[in-house]
Amino acid sequence: MSDSTQNLAVTLFSEILAVDQLARSSVSRVLPKGMELSHFSVLNHLAHAAVEKSPAQLAQTFHLTRGAMTNTLSKLEWAGWVHVRPDWEDARRKKVSISPSGVAARDAAVAAIAPVIAQVVDTVGADKVRTALPVLREMRVQLSKVE
Questions:
Q1: I need a surface site. Which of 45, 94, 97, 127 has the fewest CB within 10 A?
Q2: What's this model's pTM, rounded to 2 decimal places?
Q3: CATH architecture of structural domain 3-146
Q4: What is the distance between the alpha carbons of residues 21 and 50, in angstroms, rounded to a whole number?
Q5: Is 117 exposed, middle or buried (0-12, 13-18, 19+ CB in 10 A)?
Q6: Residue pLDDT, tens place only, 31-73
Q7: Which candidate, 76, 45, 87, 47, places its Cα nearest to that of 62?
Q8: At what angle do helices 100-124 and 66-79 cross, to 10 degrees?
Q9: Are 24 and 33 in contact (CB under 8 A)?
């Protein structure tokens, strides 16, 4: 790998990390009271999946330890945003689904987040964002293979 390529890679990842930090901060500020970004991420995933998931599947999806996912799911269950039940086929496992109040909480979060993100897209330009998305997706796919 040439020095030029290494410098490009370092600059790219520095920008990605900075954008990640700023996006997380901006979004976290507008989430409904009591909701953390990790809560929203799990609720959003479950809302789109429309099927029950095991805690292990969720941990793998979010690249977390099972313990970290269990902690998040406990908070979501306490808030009434998810249902956690035994797996009827294997009692040692559990299944997680989003509750109706979880759907409502997720929808409220999306309503709060959307204007913040839309403002950035409007400022940067929708065409630039559309151009960047395939590159970012491919980078995500390549990085997921590294682990």
A1: 127
A2: 0.86
A3: Orthogonal Bundle (1.10)
A4: 29
A5: middle
A6: 999 999 999 999 999 999 989 999 999 999 999 999 999 999 9
A7: 45
A8: 110
A9: no
Q: What pLDDT digit, counting tens, does each position of 87-140 carry?
A: 998 888 999 999 999 999 999 999 999 999 999 999 999 999 999 999 999 998
Report which of 93, 100, 89, 113 is spatially closest to residue 41, judged by C-alpha positions.
Answer: 113
Q: What backbone torsions phi and psi does residue 88 show, to the nearest 5 degrees?
A: -65, -25
CA angle 118, 121, 124 (to 5 degrees): 150
Going by the DSSP 8-state scheme, the letter that residue 143 receives in this structure is H
What does the buried/exposed string (b/e) look like for 19-52 if buried means 16 or more CB atoms within 10 Å of the residue's CB?
eeeeeeeebeeebeeebeebbbebbebbeeeeeb
How far apart (Å, rounded) are the C-alpha atoms in residues 136 and 131?
Answer: 9
Q: How many CB atoms lie within 10 A of CB 8?
A: 12
Enter the tokens of residue 72.
């998040």
How many Å apart are CA 11 and CA 5, to the nearest integer?
10
Query: Does residue 147 register a pLDDT over 80?
Result: no
The answer to whether the beta carbons of residues 43 and 98 sit under 8 Å apart is yes
